[in-house]
Amino acid sequence: MIFEFALASLILIALPGPDQALIMRNALVGGRSAGVRTMLGGVTGLTLHATAAALGVSALLATSAAAYATLKLVGVAYLIYLGAKMLLSARKPAEPEQGARGGRPYLQGFVSNALNPKVALFFLTFVPQFLPDHGSTLPLALALSATFGAIYLAWFTGLIRLVALASDALRRPRVKAWIERVTGGALVAFAVRLAAAARP
């Protein structure tokens, strides 16, 4: 069961999404440290939702249309804000990149996951498939959520290392501007997709 869960988790984590766009962009623009901090923020957001799902708190999103719509609206707005900011910064690639320094990379990773209702509902629907029908499920649910987080960290740590190998060439002003445009456009597209998604 653990192997099946780990494999399914790896596939889901590897799929393109806001996490991958933010982590790769910050690693390219701000360096390995920025990528790592974005990743840590992302896994913190995942942990928040995973714990809430294990404790039954996330069930509120599945039953409350207002709660789901509110969280989705805020999440969409944040992704659009990040995407628009990156698209605008692409016009001035030579200026120091503020969005990938200080505490912002961690905050970007955390908020993008914490405000995504799809992440909450993912843990609410995915993890229970690997839980027993009888007995206490909380310890196993928390263990599976921790496993998901560990796979998340391992996957993105590997990607950040790959980015670091080519960082010098990718940090040229023109390349950085292109990265900003692609990532900003991707985040806006993810926001539009999230906004258009029907409530499960």
Q: What is the compact description of this entry?
A:
78% of the residues lie in helices and 0% in strands. With 200 residues, the chain is mostly helical. It has one domain (32-196).
Please tell me about this protein's structure.
With 200 residues, this protein is an all-alpha fold. It has one domain (32-196). The chain is 78% helix and 0% strand. The longest helix is centred in the C-terminal third of the chain and has 28 residues, at 138-165. The two termini are 26 Å apart. Mean pLDDT is 82; it is low at 94-103.
Main beta-sheet annotation: none
User: How large is the count of helical segments?
Assistant: 10
| Number of E strands | 0
Low-confidence stretches: 94-103
Number of domains: 1
Helix/strand order, N-terminal first: HHHHHHHHHH
**Arithmetic mean of pLDDT:** 82
Q: Strand percentage, roughly?
A: under 5%
The whole-angstrom Rg is 17 Å
Gap from first CA to last CA: 26 Å
Return the structural class.
mainly alpha
Rough outline: globular
